[in-house]
Design goal:
By secondary structure, the protein is of the alpha/beta class. It is about 40% helix and about 25% strand. It starts with a strand and ends in a 5-residue tail after the last helix.
């Protein structure tokens, strides 16, 4: 096979769909024994949904996801600080923002790729460059495979990046995050609404998925987490309905992780090896753009393939994508620091500022994110 894609996450599978549509042979190698997405729910913003429309998948995704028509920022007791109406963007782009369970997204992507193109239980150990110009993939089970091109879609701790581009220490946000999904009946007021509540060194968010499913997350500064790791105690000052979300979620359905991102890399392509998604520009989740930016990577490569060879397309894509991806990383990091402020006076000022941000400024910022880059 000509192309190897390392990683069967959102980035890798979306890349596989694009290559399949371009009639370029590929194999996806996934380290896990089964494709079992972690992280519960995910928001697919308008920029990502434009890409999935381009790839012919948007209608299928809307069947298993929930439209998001409004975004609210509140305090921990659900008092609204600011609200954004997304319906004008839906009219403009003829697409809606969407919340979806990661497992449903993966099902759609796997079906579009085809399991015959995915090999599971293949953890990459190393890459050897051959005299022919091809690459030999070495897996931890002792097996090997030879490919001309490698696309590293293997996440923030990318083995492809480490092997071919060097080791980069991750940047710690010094925050931890719980994520979960449960079935629960919420008031109709929360239909088609993505909500985030800010407090002192902590915040939560939730959004309805399909049927009775609700996806939630809760972040706290590590300094607070080190004092107590009890989620019930940490959320005692949240609105009772929010506390109920946490309390009624089964422990097996709750995931805990540190918040990290990647230093800004200028080089995402070298000697027929390309990095996409978190392997190239991992970001904190504060703008909801981690997966969306990976999907935009695929869009740019896909559009370049119309006029250029695969090698030229992979070589050119970094120059097109780098500025926006790096801007998202920077903005998301800054937003995370503001959201997790710990000083009461600064929190009062922060909340007052967000109450009075003009709507046109919020819309301008969102449009910058939603617009796809010209290729």
């Amino acid at each position: 096979m000509k192309v190897s894609i390392i990683g069967a996450g959102i980035a890798g599978l979306t890349m596989a769909v694009a290559l399949k549509r371009a009639n370029i042979p590929f194999i996806v190698y996934e380290s896990a024994e089964e494709i079992k997405p972690v992280g519960a729910g995910i928001a697919m913003a308008t920029n990502a949904m434009q890409v999935y429309r381009h790839l012919g998948l948007s209608d299928k995704l809307y069947e298993v996801g929930q439209r998001i028509l409004k975004v609210q920022l509140t305090d921990l007791n659900l008092n609204v600080l600011t609200e954004s109406d997304l319906s004008p963007f839906e009219t403009q782009y003829q697409l809606a923002n969407m919340a979806i369970h990661r497992s449903e997204l993966h099902k759609v992507l796997v079906e579009a790729v085809g399991m015959e193109h995915i090999i599971l239980n293949k953890r990459l150990e190393g890459i050897d460059s051959l005299e022919s110009g091809d690459h030999q993939l070495i897996f931890t089970d002792g097996s090997c495979a030879i490919h001309t091109y490698i696309i590293g879609a293997d996440g923030i701790r990318s083995k492809v990046r480490e092997t071919k581009f060097g080791a980069y220490p991750l940047r710690e946000a010094k925050q931890v995050c719980w994520r979960g999904v449960l079935d629960i009946d919420l008031p109709e007021a929360y239909d088609n609404l993505s909500l985030e509540g800010w407090g002192r060194a902590k915040r939560f968010g939730f959004v309805k998925l399909i049927d009775r499913q609700v996806y939630w997350y809760f972040l706290v500064n590590e300094s607070i987490y080190e004092q107590t790791k009890d989620l019930t105690a940490l959320t005692s000052d949240c609105h009772p309905m929010v506390q109920q979300l946490f309390a009624e979620t089964k422990s097996d359905d709750i995931f805990l992780s540190k918040i990290q991102d990647l230093p800004l890399l200028d080089q995402w392509y070298k000697n027929k090896v390309a990095l996409i998604g978190d392997a190239a520009h991992a970001t904190t989740p504060n703008l909801g753009q981690g997966a969306c930016q990976a999907i935009e990577d695929v869009y740019v490569i896909s559009k370049l393939l119309v006029n250029y060879s695969l090698e030229e397309s992979l070589e050119r894509y970094t120059g097109i994508r780098r500025q926006k991806a790096h801007a998202i990383v920077k903005q998301s990091w800054m937003m995370g620091q503001v959201a997790q402020l710990n000083h009461p006076n600064l929190i009062t000022i922060r909340n007052a500022i967000f109450r009075f941000i003009p709507g046109f400024l919020k819309n301008w910022q969102m449009k910058k994110i939603f617009d796809l880059q010209e290729v």
